[in-house]
Task: structure prediction
Amino acid sequence: MSSVLYDTPGPRAKRRNVLLSVVFFVLLALLLWWVWQVMDDEGQLRWALWKPFTESQAWTTYLLPGLGNTLKAAALAMVIALPLGAFFGISRLSDHRWVRVPAGAVVEFFRAIPVLLLMLFANAFYDLYTDVSSEQRPLYAVVTGLVLYNASVLAEIVRAGILSLPRGQSEAAMAVGLRKGQTMTNVLLPQAVTAMLPAIVSQLVVIVKDTALGGVMIGFTELLSTRGTLAANYANVVQSFVVVAVIYIVLNFILTSFASWLEQRLRRSKKGTGVVLGKEDVEELNAAEVGGTFGTGAGGTV
Amino acid sequence: MLSTYATHPEAREIVFDFLSDYDDPSILGAFWTTVQLTVFSGVGSLVWGTLLAAMRVSPVPLMRGFGTAYVNIVRNIPLTVIIVFTSLGLADIFGVTMGASDFEVQGFRLAILGLVAYTAAFVCEAIRSGINTVPLGQAEAARAIGLSFTQTLRLIVLPQAFRSVIGPLANVLIALTKNTTVAAAIGVAEAALLMKEMIENEAQTLLIGAVFAFGFVVLTLPTGLILGWLSKRLAVKR
Result:
């Protein structure tokens, strides 16, 4: 194992590495032992507190409906945000200044604002100006907030996806006499969508994580808020947090793995230009210079 | 409030005077708390994230494993879950008060703890990717001309790595600024919590939304522009 930081270890370095491993292992073990002791002292390891999660009631009454709502909000947000994002992303690439500039302003504005603010605003807005019932309002508000924010992030992904294609593609389309709109819909977009797929799936992770905000702040009954009802019922706060965290980790891990599987598959495929936008590419494009802007809302994936 | 609304003669004052009705905290005070949260968690996560990155690129497999596990676990948990847990779990069950005597200070410090734990995972990834942009040939060339390990690190690798890390770290800082709003979930009196309170009690929904949105644009736009300019200026041309 050699890297830019160190060479392949020789006998002395090997000995030092073993020593470091042992020291680090002991420290880690001490830390784990201490956590275990503290949990034990507080009586958090009693089986009675963990047992509800082995029975179906805790899952069918609390966790699964909550998870269902989380997924519902995330899916709705993604489905609505995608066309919006595509619209703004393409508008930002327009040849006309009066289309490009407003689209850019909208995208940068919504990327600069925390999702929570958008959710709070949407909640108050629906309350005052529409007749959405109060049971439905939190879902509407959460989805609206997520859509506004993620559409602007997706707009950047779409733009990056289209810009990542080789110039020869649009030049060839022009050469065979396609109009600008035809070039976009028949040549650039289909290829860009394929290239963007991994980035879009990675963005789903962000959306899933952000639904939890709606649970705490505007009373949307998603996984984190049903955890509260569950913990109030079984008096197992710490345990319910552990279980809910594990659910989120597994869910997001599946999404992340799917995204990198897609990315690898697209990179290997012989069809197309072989251009792929992974999550890291998008972050880089955010930071660097698509069209010379360094956006206010860079870091959309954090 | 309502009486003021009814008796005020001038429309302009009716629209704007409620903004000064809030003084604990005022709007500026709430944004000051947001800035403080950002600065403290920024420094904390930079320190912890650098340590994690050092572990992830170290030659010791166990350290690498720990770093990888930490990043992959923490990144996939919503920040809201982490911050709510610091309050309901760490403070209420395990009695972690962070050396604070009153509830306000305790919530503030717990929020910083949660933000540091979460953001450090992203800082670690930013730094690691920065180190990875330095081509292997740079270090090999350095060794070939006889530089020692520390010289290679100090003169060749780290200067290049730091420069390519500015952009990704700026991203994380901007995201952190926006993420401090999650502290509202445990009652820290920062901008989002004040906005929630105001938007529920006042009629001028649009105005309140615009004021707070403007506040965040003011906080994130200069950071993005300055650090973005800096990262482009300092980028290593390859």
Observations:
- The CA atoms of residues 28 and 191 of chain B lie 9 Å apart.
